[in-house]
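Input (Nickel ABC transporter permease subunit NikB):
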Amino acid sequence: MLGFALRRLATLLPLLLLVSFGFFAMLRLGRGDPALDYLRLAQIPPTDAALALARQELGLDRTILLQFASWLGGAVQGDLGISWFTHRPVTEEIAHYLPATLQLAGTAMLVTILVGVPLGIWAAMNRDRWPDHLTRVMTFLGVSVPNFWLGFLLVLLFAVTLGWLPAIGRDGLSSILLPALATAAMSASVMLRLVRASVLGVLGEAHLRFARARGLPARTLLGRHIVLNAMVPPLTAIGLHLGELMGGAMVVETVFGWPGLGRYALQAIGNRDYPVLQGFVVVMTAVFVLCNLLVDLIYAWLDPRIRLERAA
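Output:
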């Protein structure tokens, strides 16, 4: 297992480096002048002398490879630069906002699992009957309704009309329910359909027919032979869902006033705060990579054939 983990990590580190360089180059080679944006945020008149001095201070007069090498050297030591807007270290600001986003994404993932897995099993065990048709409608709505619009509807119903839950802020368990539901709607719908398809695949396998022929109780069949075998493929999707939830949280955090990293990044986009945007992409990519590595390890632990295939 250790060798499998090291091999997976060796393939993920180049991906993180490639994403970092790609976004770094896109920011600096795209439309607009970073030096001009820097002066605008610093409220300095953009004279020719000021622009030349800003390019020298920011290192924009060097090649893109030298700029990235300088940034990477600091990033490896935990220094992601200084925000052009707040003039504070980006690492400290990300460390301040990241826990709120992880809390929201983790709660949304929990909602995804608690809703998608049981309903997917229920739909598969009642194929082509009313529970199956009901879950199809639910999944259609879940993947069709944008999460920000669903967030507005949830606020209107539970906060404005009924007054049961707070509309904005991060204050206790009650404040996270609405943003977590809005964030998890699409992922839960996809998980439901994936679990349903996986369970239907297991129901048609030969070993289940033999287990039924042995006279095993229905509860044993469901728990030991159906669910355990059907849960291996959905595990692969959890890593993708987490990335989707982290990305979807950007808009939801703005709707609900959630003080997370997504809302912080949206403000940086509006301000064209390059160091913050670069740090945000690197941190989010690292979280996504580590979550996928964890999912791969769990997947290999549940299905030893994965380790054997990798070793071969």
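The mean pLDDT is 81.
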